[in-house]
Specification:
The complex is a heterodimer.
Chain A lengths: L36 E6 L14 H10 L4 E3 L5 E3 L2 E6 L3 E6 L13 H12 L17 H5 L10 E2 L5 E5 L7 H4 L10 H7 L16 E7 L3 E6 L13 E7 L3 H9 L5 E2 L4 H9 L4 E14 L10 H10 L2 H9 L5 E2 L15 H4 L9 H15 L7 E5 L3 H18 L3 E5 L2 H10 L4 E6 L7 H4 L16 H11 L4 H17 L3 E13 L3 E2 L16 E2 L5
Helix pairs in contact in A: 8-11, 15-16
Chain B lengths: L1 H28 L13 H11 L5 H13 L14 H36 L4 H15 L2 H19 L12 H31 L2 H8 L4 H13 L1 H16 L2 H6 L5 H11 L2 H29 L5 H6 L1
Helix pairs in contact in B: 1-13, 4-5, 4-7, 4-10, 5-7, 6-7, 7-9, 7-10, 8-9, 10-13, 12-13
Classes of the chains: A alpha+beta, B mainly alpha.
């Protein structure tokens, strides 16, 4: 699952030490320290670094360090000024004032034209960007992407070199958060055109306006990011270098690199690693990475899961807490409540606090009654085996087996597990070739809408084709205003409809456990935005 | 000889053509496509991508374009690494896999011949039993277990000594290659030991060995000049395919030791259904294997004067 990212605020980085108390805030990195290099291992290499085409975590991680949009993500995921030093926003649009001292790594100034160029290119159908949709809140973006209008018609203009004016298609309450997202980064037209298809293919094929520059990229092997001497805020950057000496998907290997002191951070520990880390007495921290995992039911004709009582029966026998402990087994993992995860903010406080949702209790007796009801409604004496579509990870297998035995013992339901590799699973999901699919969703931006829109009838990611006119109407009304309370209330009402309809069964909100060496501090983790974020990290000076 | 070689090369080319065609068909039969991602796309965005990659064209047309490009030596641009050509990927990463593979094969071949001879010489004695026990381990334990164990061992060793005795992973110097190539060669070595053992035992009691003994040659000369030279032939036969298998099959070892080899790209390409990379690497590897088999057949003839490849081709 690609955790494409963007965030506005939230205290995700509030870390919890699991074994021993957390880091004590001792000396900050002092200037003049000889080695201000942080080392890190990537699981896969970024496919390329053209922000118009990036969709994956690794690319957004590198771009978040080497590029800067109008805004950027702060320590707690809040939006802070980037190339723009100030802005004004209303229902119709936004105006950003750019700082005059923002420069590209070759010394040329960053101007409004660089934003105009990349934003227009993103929605240009010739670019064929997968993330073009993220620009749709801007006027005419969708029409341009569909080939109906010229890219020049995009609702963005530059009255002068240091002003970016945006006109919205419809009010967009979360637009500011989007401007920090990778797809909204500036690109310099002259440089882009000079590189043609090679743009961002190698370290020398990019020009940077962020805190770091990619200085080395040996494909498949290693990367290195050095501090950008032309970055306007370079005095706030404590690291001289981010070294990525290893790229490997092997978790075990990355754990060994960490033990061997070759990397400073191990960004995620799986269940097996946890025991090893405990044995090593490593200080573990955790954070919610923003992803919600859930079961999606198939609502297409003739699918048994189109029957509400069948879905309700399955939900009745499911005990989320037991599942989180026995199957997921990552400390700090929250059982899923609704469609909108608990880390997202509402109008003033956390969305979930403003719109509480009671945890569902398992009730096997009720489930048994419901399943009989479902059989009667379907006019069958026994329900045919349900097709459970899932991925090929160890967790998917464990999860499938858990539900197989749970549904068999409580409801007498048979599950036929269909384990598929990534692409085949996608194809089967889109084709509706399943009854239940173990799915997940990572946020594109930090607003409940990134989740709430999922179950609308027009969303291609609604793979079960759940359709509810009342739900659609509520979401449309939330999208028609930038007024926070109105939007949040509409989304909360919609969420309640979907949950009461058992459109999905929320399983859990993913938590990642990570460890880092004591010599580093200030590593920030984001649910939305470049993760991990080293722009605020520093190396502690040690007494010799 | 020349005629034979040309004949083999021609059949080799036909084989490669079939490999390309079957891969193309299989790839398009599998559900899914290279452009779909975890997040579904709107039909417009999808259409934009399909147009860009020519996936909106009929499959037969794609096949034609594809074959024409292969003949020109152009495997196309990767779908996942959108601005790298498959030719770039092969050029950058095959040398790494090949270096690793050649080292592994050297270790395997020398180890196989030496240990295989030892088991034969000490037949049914302690060294034989010990080596054969290890051989069974080597054959039955998959390489990822050896890789993980080896890496764990080195990590602990470095920690225990407080020095960097051996790198835990990465690529660049000979010390980086040592452990991975040993791990990679282990399975083949075990196989070769067994082959070598039975092969030596076979020639042990043949007439020419007895004659050599009767002539009063020293045991060492008999072993080197008569037994080994004849017994090593089967080893050379399997070496060709083994080189290809090792050079192409290093995915697990490459990923454990974070080595930028080609194997990893191949596996990733299959998972991502990256059509151009799958096709390019299959054709490349296919040609490599075919070429290795031909090369070994020719070398075989040179080593063993009893076999005349030219004559065989006339049949």
């Amino acid at each position: 699952m690609k955790n494409s990212t963007l965030v506005i605020f939230m205290q995700l980085t509030a870390t919890v030490a699991l074994t021993t108390p957390g880091l004590t805030s001792s000396a900050l990195a002092a200037t003049g320290s000889a080695n201000k290099t942080l080392s890190y291992a990537l699981s896969t290499e970024p496919p390329q670094l053209n922000s118009l085409k990036s969709t994956d975590t690794e690319s957004f991680f590198i771009l978040g360090h080497t590029m800067e949009g109008l805004t950027r993500y702060g320590k707690s995921g809040e939006i802070v000024p980037g190339v723009a030093e100030k802005w004004t926003m209303n229902d119709q649009g936004a105006t950003f004032t750019l700082r005059k001292n923002a420069k590209w790594s070759d010394g040329k100034p960053v101007t409004a034209k660089d934003f105009l160029f990349s934003w227009r290119a993103l929605v240009n159908p010739k670019t064929a960007s997968e993330y073009a949709f993220i620009m749709y809140p801007v006027k005419n973006a969708e029409a341009i992407n569909k080939g109906k209008l010229d890219p020049k018609e995009l609702g963005v203009s530059a009255p002068d070199d240091y002003t970016v004016k945006v006109v919205f298609e419809k009010p967009c309450g979360y637009f500011l958060g989007l401007t920090a997202f990778g797809s909204f980064m500036p690109i310099r037209e002259d440089f882009y055109n000079s590189k043609k298809d090679r743009y961002a293919a190698d370290a020398g094929d990019l020009v940077y306006n962020g805190p770091f520059m990619l200085t080395k990229w040996t494909h498949g092997a290693s990367l290195a990011l050095d501090k950008n001497p032309n970055y306007w805020n370079k005095d706030r950057i404590a690291l001289d270098r981010i070294d990525i000496p290893y790229i490997t998907p092997d978790n075990n290997a990355r754990f060994n690199f960490f033990k061997d002191n070759k990397v400073d951070l191990l960004e995620t520990l799986n269940k097996d690693d946890l025991q090893k880390a405990q044995a090593e007495r490593l200080k573990m921290k955790n954070f919610a990475d923003g992803t919600l995992l859930f079961l999606e039911f198939n609502f297409r004709d003739k699918r048994p899961t189109a029957n509400k009582n069948l879905r309700k029966a399955i939900a009745s026998v499911f005990n989320a807490d037991e599942y989180v402990n026995r199957v997921v087994g990552i400390p700090g993992t929250k059982a899923g409540l609704g469609l909108i995860p608990q880390w997202l903010r509402g109008s003033k406080d956390l969305f979930r606090k403003e719109h509480p949702m009671a945890a569902r209790k398992a009730n096997v007796a009720e489930g048994k009654k419901l399943i009989e009801l479902a059989k009667k409604e379907m006019g069958v004496t026994s329900i045919p085996p349900l097709v459970w579509l899932t991925g090929d990870t160890p967790l998917s297998a464990k999860e499938a087996e858990y539900f197989q035995s749970l549904l068999k013992t409580t409801l007498g339901l048979e599950l036929k597990i269909d384990k598929q590799i990534f692409k085949q699973r996608l194809a089967k999901m889109s084709a509706g070739d399943f009854d239940i699919v173990a799915a997940g969703w990572g946020p594109d931006y930090s607003d409940p809408m990134t989740f709430a829109e999922l179950m609308t009838s027009w969303n291609e990611n609604n793979r079960g084709q759940y359709k509810n006119a009342a739900y659609d109407k509520l979401i449309r009304s939330a999208q028609a205003t930038a007024h926070a309370t109105t939007r949040m209330t509409a989304m909360a009402d919609a969420e309640k409809l979907a949950i009461d309809d058992f459109a999905i069964l929320p399983l859990f909100e993913r938590t990642k456990v990570y460890v880092h060496h004591d010599r580093v501090e200030g590593i920030v983790r984001h649910a939305v935005g470049p993760d991990p974020d080293f722009t605020m990290a520093s190396i502690k000076t040690t007494k010799q | 000889m020349l005629k034979y070689t040309l004949h083999r090369l021609l059949t080799g080319l036909i084989t490669v053509f079939f490999i390309a065609t079957i891969t193309f068909a299989a790839m398009h039969l599998v559900p899914g496509d290279p452009i779909s991602g975890a997040k579904a796309m709107s039909p417009e965005i999808r259409a934009n991508l399909e147009r860009k990659y020519g996936l909106d064209q009929p499959v037969l047309h794609q096949y034609k374009v594809y074959l024409t490009n292969i003949v020109k030596g152009d495997f196309g641009i990767s779908y996942t690494q959108q601005n790298r050509s498959v030719n770039d990927i092969i050029r950058d990463h095959f040398p790494v896999s090949a270096t690793l593979g050649v080292l592994a094969i050297l270790i395997a071949a020398f180890g196989g011949v030496i240990f295989g001879s030892l088991t034969a010489l000490f037949r049914n004695k302690a060294p034989d039993h010990l080596i054969m026990f290890l051989v069974i381990l080597g054959i039955s334990v998959p390489s990822f277990v050896f890789a993980a164990l080896g890496q764990y061992g080195v990590t602990e060793l470095n920690r225990f000594t407080g020095k960097d005795i051996l790198p835990v992973g990465g690529w660049g110097t000979l010390s980086h290659m040592l452990l991975p190539s040993l791990v990679l060669g282990l399975g083949t070595m075990a196989f070769l030991v067994r082959l070598m053992r039975s092969s030596i035992l076979e020639v042990m009691n043949l007439d020419y060995v007895r004659t050599a003994k009767a002539k009063g040659l020293s045991p060492m000369r008999i072993f080197l000049g008569h037994k080994l030279r004849n017994a090593v032939l089967p080893v050379i036969t399997v070496l060709g395919p083994a080189i290809a298998a090792i050079t192409t099959g290093g995915f697990v070892v490459e990923s454990v030791f974070a080595i930028p080899g080609l194997g990893r790209y191949f596996v990733q390409a299959v998972q991502q259904l990256d059509y151009t990379v799958i096709m390019g690497l299959t054709v490349f590897y296919g040609s490599f294997l075919v070429f290795m088999v031909i090369a070994v057949d020719i070398i075989y003839g040179l080593i063993d004067p009893r076999i005349s490849v030219a004559k065989r081709s006339a049949v």
